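Researcher: Next entry: Transcriptional repressor rco-1 (Paraphaeosphaeria sporulosa).
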Amino acid sequence: MNHYPPRIGPPAGAPSQRLNELLDQIRAEFETESNRSVDYEGQITRHIQEIEMIRGKVYSLEQQHVQVKAKYEEEIARLQRELEARGGPSQNSQHHGPSQPPPPSIGHGPSNLFGGIMAGNNQGGPGLAPPPQETQQPGGLPPHLGAGPQGPPGLNPAPGPPQHFGGYGGSAPSMNGYGQPPQPTASPGGKRPGPGPRGPPGPATPQQNSAAPYPGSPQVPRPTPPPHQQHPLGPPGGPPLRESNILADLDLESLPANLKKEEQDWFAVFNPRARRVLDVELVHNLPHQSVVCCVRFSADGRYVATGCNRSAQIFDVETGNPIAHLQDTSLPEDGDLYIRSVCFSPNGQYLATGAEDKVIRVWDIASRTIKHQFTGHEQDIYSLDFAKNGRIIASGSGDRSVRLWDLETNQQVSNFSIEDGVTTVAISPDSRFVAAGSLDKSVRVWDIHTGSLVVRLEGEQGHKDSVYSVAFAPSGDRLVSGSLDKTIKMWELTTPSRLIPGAAPSGKCIRTFEGHKDFVLSVALTPHGDWVLSGSKDRGVQFWDPHTGVAQLMLQGHKNSVISVAPSPTGGIFATGSGDMRARIWKFDRYTGP
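Model: Predicted structure:
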């Protein structure tokens, strides 16, 4: 019988207590490390988030720096252009030119409807005087309504020594932006206006001056746009509509050949963000002896009339030759007397002129004689329009009125009074309505036959500054307006039906055209309503698509503000009048290039 020694250790099948302890220790260490790993992951995630936040802040600061730098460079370029346009550095450290003698006032009361409107406009631009300081006028009037010798904010200053500024001819740098602080104006005879009723301020007499070179000419080096604007197509993603319409910001040198046109003394740029469908060409350059305040075509498109100091002139559109020189020889030869508006009768037989002496003259073109004279306005006449029926003339004046005159009876037939000076009038194509723009930022439309106010276009949708120009669309149910707020607006008119008693008239803004760099002084539509034209204090003419509000092209050729634009009723031709003492005739046609 075998005997085995007794077994040493735990009985068979019993768990090893030591092994379990080791396993528990390992498990505990693993869990501890796992928890630490989770903590580390959380810390790493937080660090990554902090790094991303810092990166975002750095990027934001970098973008702000780029924008600030771009604005700084743009401001320097603007000041350099302004300095060069004035022919040298400012003559004193105050940026105020020497005091200038006030321009003469025609008739009683202040003749300064547009005076001082630059006050309060704190943005500069090519050729602009330094932003004026806010000054309070006597009687508590805001600066842009105070009387004084300032001229209309139509023109850019010229190079060379300061001259007699104060009107369309330019503006010396001064506290009010026009060459002298507000003060009473003198009449041609040297007498100050005496006490008594005084009308609203009116535009000072335009003054002649040497014009500044057009932007882009050899005399004015083209400014280099800020870095974010150097590419002709703008930043990736595309700018909003307003920015894409500011064609003056395009770098001419970097634009492809099909998006620009450069000639000896003018150039055009075409919107890179719109399909080019137009071409433009200069036809005639018509020098004048003074500022050209207005241009207008005859109904058959054969002639264009211009208004300047003391005379109106008529030119043959095809040849550019002068046809007639209309001047009232019964007036004294001394002093200025600017023709602010001209308008052909529909049959082309007559030319109506409105002037600073408050008189409307209707000239028989063939005999060069005055057939009618209408008097009654108490301030300068700034705008005229002939009704298509050839019988009624509408006039707008600084005396706060729109008046209608009948050529057959040689009498005034209507007088529509408003609260502020009237700057522009237009009669609808069906001769039923007359529209007027005013210093009070409103556009009003009256029914000619009933004399009732049909609609007043203003408010949140309206202009933010004085309205300088209105024009009906060929359809008659829309009109466009140009303003000192640098915009053009298109209005849709819904007039009450005569078959529906009590129907309320209405009008709404359906489109705003933004892109001009300065005051919009004149607007018009081509004969079929295909394009909106505008002229501005920024010296540019722009064509706009009326259906989209997109600018098609910008034309730069005049060396001073474009005061007046007018399309030919026969199409394909338009004219411009400027403070550079020139009128120009241009043609536009469909673009046939690549």
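Model: Note for the record: Residues 433 and 448 are 5 Å apart (CA to CA).
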